[in-house]
Amino acid sequence: MNLYQIIVGSYGTERDEAIQLVEYDADKQVFRKKAYIDGVSSPSFLAFEPNKQILYAVSEEDIGEIICYKMDINIRECIRTETGGSGPCYVHVDSDTDFLFITNYGSGNITVHPLDDAGMVSQLSENISLGDESNISHPHMVYPLGRNDLYFVTDLGQDLLFVFQLDRVDQKLTKKNIFHFKKGTGPRHIAMNISSNIIYVANEFSSTVSVYRYVHQTNKLQFLQDILTVPNLEQKEGNFCADIHISPFGEFLYVSNRGRNTIVSYKILESGLLQRWSEASTVGKWPRNFSVSADGKYLFIANEHSDSINVIQVNNDGNLTTLPVHYSMTSPTCILMHEKRI
Protein backbone atom coordinates (compact mmCIF):
# COMPACT_ATOMS: atom_id res chain seq x y z
CA MET A 1 0.00 0.00 0.00
CA ASN A 2 1.06 3.54 -0.73
CA LEU A 3 -0.45 5.46 2.18
CA TYR A 4 0.59 8.95 3.28
CA GLN A 5 -0.62 10.81 6.36
CA ILE A 6 -0.77 14.58 6.60
CA ILE A 7 -1.80 16.97 9.38
CA VAL A 8 -3.59 20.07 8.13
CA GLY A 9 -4.03 23.43 9.85
CA SER A 10 -6.48 26.08 8.69
CA TYR A 11 -8.30 29.36 9.25
CA GLY A 12 -11.27 27.43 10.62
CA THR A 13 -13.23 28.58 13.66
CA GLU A 14 -13.57 26.92 17.07
CA ARG A 15 -16.71 25.20 15.77
CA ASP A 16 -14.92 23.73 12.76
CA GLU A 17 -12.71 20.68 12.50
CA ALA A 18 -9.91 23.19 12.11
CA ILE A 19 -7.04 20.69 12.40
CA GLN A 20 -7.38 17.37 10.59
CA LEU A 21 -5.33 14.20 10.30
CA VAL A 22 -5.86 12.94 6.75
CA GLU A 23 -4.66 9.85 4.91
CA TYR A 24 -3.96 9.75 1.18
CA ASP A 25 -4.18 6.42 -0.63
CA ALA A 26 -1.97 6.89 -3.68
CA ASP A 27 -3.05 3.61 -5.28
CA LYS A 28 -6.73 4.53 -5.23
CA GLN A 29 -6.15 8.32 -5.39
CA VAL A 30 -8.51 9.01 -2.49
CA PHE A 31 -8.31 10.90 0.81
CA ARG A 32 -9.69 9.66 4.13
CA LYS A 33 -10.18 11.72 7.29
CA LYS A 34 -8.65 9.83 10.23
CA ALA A 35 -9.10 12.32 13.10
CA TYR A 36 -9.76 15.98 13.80
CA ILE A 37 -9.34 18.70 16.43
CA ASP A 38 -11.90 21.41 17.15
CA GLY A 39 -12.09 24.08 19.84
CA VAL A 40 -9.28 26.19 18.36
CA SER A 41 -9.61 29.26 16.15
CA SER A 42 -7.35 29.83 13.12
CA PRO A 43 -4.65 27.21 13.80
CA SER A 44 -2.84 28.51 10.75
CA PHE A 45 0.55 26.89 11.31
CA LEU A 46 1.69 23.64 12.88
CA ALA A 47 4.88 21.95 14.04
CA PHE A 48 5.40 18.37 15.17
CA GLU A 49 7.93 16.87 17.58
CA PRO A 50 8.21 13.18 16.62
CA ASN A 51 10.15 11.93 19.64
CA LYS A 52 7.56 13.11 22.15
CA GLN A 53 4.66 12.94 19.68
CA ILE A 54 3.60 16.53 20.40
CA LEU A 55 1.73 18.69 17.88
CA TYR A 56 2.06 22.47 18.28
CA ALA A 57 -0.48 24.85 16.74
CA VAL A 58 -0.53 28.64 16.72
CA SER A 59 -3.90 30.35 16.91
CA GLU A 60 -3.58 33.35 14.58
CA GLU A 61 -5.81 35.73 16.51
CA ASP A 62 -5.39 39.23 17.99
CA ILE A 63 -4.29 37.56 21.22
CA GLY A 64 -2.12 34.79 19.84
CA GLU A 65 -2.00 31.39 21.46
CA ILE A 66 0.17 28.29 21.19
CA ILE A 67 -1.58 24.99 21.89
CA CYS A 68 0.13 21.64 22.60
CA TYR A 69 -1.55 18.35 21.67
CA LYS A 70 -0.40 14.83 22.55
CA MET A 71 -0.73 12.55 19.53
CA ASP A 72 -1.74 9.30 21.24
CA ILE A 73 -4.40 6.87 20.09
CA ASN A 74 -6.69 9.79 20.84
CA ILE A 75 -5.46 13.33 20.23
CA ARG A 76 -5.71 15.36 23.43
CA GLU A 77 -5.03 18.99 24.24
CA CYS A 78 -2.43 19.34 27.00
CA ILE A 79 -1.77 23.04 27.43
CA ARG A 80 -2.34 26.40 25.78
CA THR A 81 -0.69 29.72 26.50
CA GLU A 82 -0.31 33.13 24.90
CA THR A 83 2.41 33.68 22.32
CA GLY A 84 3.28 37.17 23.56
CA GLY A 85 1.98 38.85 20.43
CA SER A 86 -0.81 39.09 17.86
CA GLY A 87 -1.36 37.18 14.65
CA PRO A 88 1.21 34.39 15.12
CA CYS A 89 1.79 32.80 11.71
CA TYR A 90 4.72 30.41 12.23
CA VAL A 91 6.02 28.02 14.85
CA HIS A 92 9.29 26.08 14.83
CA VAL A 93 10.13 23.37 17.34
CA ASP A 94 13.81 22.56 17.84
CA SER A 95 14.25 19.05 19.22
CA ASP A 96 18.00 19.57 19.72
CA THR A 97 17.62 22.55 22.02
CA ASP A 98 14.10 21.95 23.43
CA PHE A 99 12.90 25.41 22.48
CA LEU A 100 9.91 26.67 20.53
CA PHE A 101 10.13 29.76 18.30
CA ILE A 102 7.12 31.79 17.18
CA THR A 103 6.74 34.69 14.74
CA ASN A 104 3.94 37.08 15.66
CA TYR A 105 3.12 38.62 12.29
CA GLY A 106 0.59 41.17 13.53
CA SER A 107 2.61 42.65 16.40
CA GLY A 108 6.00 42.34 14.68
CA ASN A 109 7.83 40.32 17.32
CA ILE A 110 9.36 36.88 17.79
CA THR A 111 9.12 34.89 21.00
CA VAL A 112 11.05 31.97 22.46
CA HIS A 113 9.44 29.36 24.69
CA PRO A 114 11.45 26.69 26.57
CA LEU A 115 9.99 23.16 26.54
CA ASP A 116 9.90 20.86 29.54
CA ASP A 117 10.86 17.17 29.46
CA ALA A 118 7.40 16.22 28.20
CA GLY A 119 7.59 18.76 25.37
CA MET A 120 5.12 21.15 26.96
CA VAL A 121 5.49 24.90 26.47
CA SER A 122 6.50 26.99 29.47
CA GLN A 123 6.43 30.76 29.86
CA LEU A 124 8.28 32.66 27.18
CA SER A 125 11.93 33.45 27.88
CA GLU A 126 12.48 35.96 25.07
CA ASN A 127 10.35 38.55 23.28
CA ILE A 128 12.04 40.65 20.60
CA SER A 129 10.32 43.40 18.60
CA LEU A 130 11.85 43.70 15.14
CA GLY A 131 10.42 47.06 14.05
CA ASP A 132 9.88 50.50 15.51
CA GLU A 133 7.46 53.40 15.13
CA SER A 134 8.66 54.18 11.61
CA ASN A 135 9.21 50.62 10.36
CA ILE A 136 6.37 48.08 10.39
CA SER A 137 7.67 44.59 10.97
CA HIS A 138 5.94 41.42 9.77
CA PRO A 139 8.15 38.45 10.70
CA HIS A 140 7.05 35.32 8.88
CA MET A 141 9.45 32.44 9.55
CA VAL A 142 12.13 31.15 11.90
CA TYR A 143 14.57 28.78 10.21
CA PRO A 144 17.50 26.94 11.86
CA LEU A 145 20.91 27.11 10.19
CA GLY A 146 21.84 23.67 11.51
CA ARG A 147 24.83 24.67 13.64
CA ASN A 148 25.91 27.01 16.45
CA ASP A 149 22.28 27.53 17.53
CA LEU A 150 21.82 30.10 14.76
CA TYR A 151 18.43 30.98 13.28
CA PHE A 152 17.20 33.03 10.34
CA VAL A 153 14.11 35.21 10.76
CA THR A 154 12.42 36.61 7.65
CA ASP A 155 10.70 40.00 7.90
CA LEU A 156 8.63 40.72 4.81
CA GLY A 157 7.36 43.98 6.32
CA GLN A 158 10.82 45.55 6.46
CA ASP A 159 12.45 43.50 3.64
CA LEU A 160 14.99 42.14 6.09
CA LEU A 161 16.57 38.83 7.00
CA PHE A 162 17.85 38.55 10.57
CA VAL A 163 20.35 36.11 12.03
CA PHE A 164 19.97 35.34 15.74
CA GLN A 165 21.96 33.08 18.05
CA LEU A 166 20.32 31.27 20.94
CA ASP A 167 22.00 31.09 24.34
CA ARG A 168 20.59 27.87 25.79
CA VAL A 169 21.57 28.78 29.37
CA ASP A 170 20.19 32.33 29.44
CA GLN A 171 17.39 31.31 27.03
CA LYS A 172 17.90 34.54 25.11
CA LEU A 173 18.58 35.53 21.50
CA THR A 174 21.49 37.67 20.31
CA LYS A 175 21.28 39.47 16.97
CA LYS A 176 24.28 38.48 14.85
CA ASN A 177 23.51 40.18 11.54
CA ILE A 178 20.83 41.82 9.39
CA PHE A 179 20.58 41.49 5.61
CA HIS A 180 18.68 44.06 3.56
CA PHE A 181 16.57 43.12 0.55
CA LYS A 182 15.43 45.54 -2.13
CA LYS A 183 12.35 47.48 -1.02
CA GLY A 184 9.17 45.66 -1.99
CA THR A 185 10.79 42.22 -2.19
CA GLY A 186 9.04 40.65 0.81
CA PRO A 187 11.25 37.77 2.00
CA ARG A 188 8.76 35.22 3.37
CA HIS A 189 10.02 31.63 3.61
CA ILE A 190 13.40 29.88 3.39
CA ALA A 191 14.77 26.51 2.34
CA MET A 192 18.41 25.61 2.94
CA ASN A 193 20.90 23.01 1.79
CA ILE A 194 22.78 22.53 5.06
CA SER A 195 25.75 20.69 3.50
CA SER A 196 26.52 23.45 0.98
CA ASN A 197 25.30 26.40 3.11
CA ILE A 198 23.13 27.54 0.20
CA ILE A 199 19.86 29.23 1.18
CA TYR A 200 16.85 29.90 -1.03
CA VAL A 201 14.47 32.72 -0.08
CA ALA A 202 10.92 32.88 -1.48
CA ASN A 203 10.07 36.56 -1.94
CA GLU A 204 6.34 37.21 -1.66
CA PHE A 205 6.03 40.55 -3.42
CA SER A 206 8.67 40.30 -6.18
CA SER A 207 7.79 36.73 -7.26
CA THR A 208 11.42 35.72 -7.08
CA VAL A 209 13.70 33.26 -5.34
CA SER A 210 16.95 34.72 -4.03
CA VAL A 211 19.94 32.39 -3.74
CA TYR A 212 22.75 33.02 -1.26
CA ARG A 213 25.68 31.21 0.27
CA TYR A 214 25.90 31.64 4.02
CA VAL A 215 29.46 32.15 5.31
CA HIS A 216 29.53 30.92 8.90
CA GLN A 217 32.91 32.41 9.71
CA THR A 218 31.62 35.95 9.17
CA ASN A 219 27.83 35.43 9.51
CA LYS A 220 27.42 37.04 6.09
CA LEU A 221 25.56 36.19 2.89
CA GLN A 222 27.15 35.92 -0.55
CA PHE A 223 24.63 36.73 -3.28
CA LEU A 224 24.42 34.17 -6.08
CA GLN A 225 21.16 34.56 -8.03
CA ASP A 226 17.67 36.02 -8.33
CA ILE A 227 15.22 34.01 -10.44
CA LEU A 228 11.54 34.62 -11.22
CA THR A 229 8.82 32.21 -10.12
CA VAL A 230 6.69 33.28 -13.10
CA PRO A 231 7.67 32.94 -16.78
CA ASN A 232 8.28 36.68 -17.28
CA LEU A 233 8.00 40.07 -15.58
CA GLU A 234 4.62 40.78 -17.16
CA GLN A 235 3.08 37.88 -15.22
CA LYS A 236 4.15 39.17 -11.78
CA GLU A 237 0.98 41.26 -11.48
CA GLY A 238 -1.36 39.71 -8.92
CA ASN A 239 1.06 36.93 -7.98
CA PHE A 240 2.48 36.38 -4.50
CA CYS A 241 4.99 33.67 -3.60
CA ALA A 242 4.31 31.69 -0.45
CA ASP A 243 6.03 28.43 0.43
CA ILE A 244 9.34 26.85 -0.59
CA HIS A 245 10.88 23.38 -0.12
CA ILE A 246 13.83 21.32 -1.34
CA SER A 247 13.10 17.78 -2.55
CA PRO A 248 14.16 15.00 -0.13
CA PHE A 249 17.17 14.05 -2.26
CA GLY A 250 18.27 17.63 -2.92
CA GLU A 251 17.75 17.64 -6.68
CA PHE A 252 14.88 20.11 -7.01
CA LEU A 253 13.44 23.22 -5.37
CA TYR A 254 9.68 23.85 -5.29
CA VAL A 255 7.87 27.19 -4.80
CA SER A 256 4.15 27.98 -4.65
CA ASN A 257 2.63 30.88 -6.59
CA ARG A 258 -0.55 32.41 -5.12
CA GLY A 259 -2.54 34.19 -7.81
CA ARG A 260 -1.01 32.24 -10.68
CA ASN A 261 -1.96 29.17 -8.62
CA THR A 262 0.92 26.91 -9.55
CA ILE A 263 3.87 25.06 -8.12
CA VAL A 264 7.08 25.80 -9.99
CA SER A 265 10.14 23.56 -9.78
CA TYR A 266 13.81 24.30 -10.37
CA LYS A 267 16.71 21.96 -10.97
CA ILE A 268 19.41 22.60 -8.35
CA LEU A 269 22.75 22.67 -10.15
CA GLU A 270 26.04 21.58 -8.58
CA SER A 271 26.86 25.24 -7.95
CA GLY A 272 23.62 25.67 -6.02
CA LEU A 273 22.18 27.90 -8.75
CA LEU A 274 18.68 27.24 -10.07
CA GLN A 275 17.44 26.25 -13.51
CA ARG A 276 13.72 26.55 -14.16
CA TRP A 277 12.39 23.03 -14.75
CA SER A 278 8.63 22.51 -14.53
CA GLU A 279 5.35 24.09 -13.49
CA ALA A 280 1.96 22.57 -12.67
CA SER A 281 -1.44 23.93 -11.72
CA THR A 282 -2.55 23.56 -8.11
CA VAL A 283 -6.14 23.38 -9.45
CA GLY A 284 -7.28 25.12 -6.28
CA LYS A 285 -6.77 28.79 -5.48
CA TRP A 286 -4.13 30.49 -3.33
CA PRO A 287 -1.59 27.70 -2.51
CA ARG A 288 -0.43 29.12 0.80
CA ASN A 289 1.53 26.09 1.95
CA PHE A 290 2.57 22.64 0.78
CA SER A 291 4.55 19.63 1.90
CA VAL A 292 6.72 17.08 0.09
CA SER A 293 6.34 13.38 0.83
CA ALA A 294 9.41 11.66 2.29
CA ASP A 295 9.91 9.62 -0.88
CA GLY A 296 9.71 12.77 -3.02
CA LYS A 297 6.83 11.46 -5.14
CA TYR A 298 4.04 13.81 -4.10
CA LEU A 299 3.37 17.43 -3.18
CA PHE A 300 0.36 18.03 -0.93
CA ILE A 301 -0.97 21.57 -1.37
CA ALA A 302 -3.12 23.71 0.94
CA ASN A 303 -5.26 25.89 -1.35
CA GLU A 304 -6.60 28.45 1.11
CA HIS A 305 -9.15 30.27 -1.05
CA SER A 306 -10.76 27.21 -2.66
CA ASP A 307 -11.10 25.19 0.57
CA SER A 308 -9.19 22.30 -0.92
CA ILE A 309 -6.13 20.12 -0.60
CA ASN A 310 -4.73 19.03 -3.94
CA VAL A 311 -1.95 16.72 -5.03
CA ILE A 312 0.85 17.06 -7.57
CA GLN A 313 2.90 14.05 -8.59
CA VAL A 314 6.65 14.34 -9.17
CA ASN A 315 7.60 12.19 -12.15
CA ASN A 316 10.88 10.30 -12.48
CA ASP A 317 12.28 13.06 -14.71
CA GLY A 318 11.36 15.73 -12.17
CA ASN A 319 8.43 17.12 -14.14
CA LEU A 320 5.23 17.87 -12.25
CA THR A 321 1.78 16.42 -12.98
CA THR A 322 -1.43 17.60 -11.32
CA LEU A 323 -3.58 14.67 -10.17
CA PRO A 324 -7.42 14.61 -10.44
CA VAL A 325 -7.97 14.34 -6.70
CA HIS A 326 -8.82 16.78 -3.93
CA TYR A 327 -9.92 16.92 -0.29
CA SER A 328 -12.36 19.55 0.96
CA MET A 329 -11.54 21.53 4.10
CA THR A 330 -12.26 25.10 5.19
CA SER A 331 -9.37 27.48 4.38
CA PRO A 332 -6.41 25.08 4.73
CA THR A 333 -3.19 26.96 5.48
CA CYS A 334 -0.54 24.45 6.58
CA ILE A 335 0.33 20.84 5.75
CA LEU A 336 2.72 18.58 7.68
CA MET A 337 3.77 15.10 6.61
CA HIS A 338 2.95 12.98 9.65
CA GLU A 339 4.72 9.72 8.99
CA LYS A 340 6.70 7.80 6.41
CA ARG A 341 5.03 5.93 3.59
CA ILE A 342 3.60 2.53 4.59
From TrEMBL:
Protein name: 6-phosphogluconolactonase
InterPro entries, per the entry: Cycloisomerase_2, Haem_d1_sf, Lactonase_7-beta_prop, WD40/YVTN_repeat-like_dom_sf
Coiled coil regions in record: none
Organism classification: Bacteria, Bacillati, Bacillota, Bacilli, Bacillales
Recorded family membership: Belongs to the cycloisomerase 2 family.
Highest taxon listed in the record's lineage: Bacteria
Pfam families the UniProt entry points to: Lactonase
GO molecular function, one term: 6-phosphogluconolactonase activity
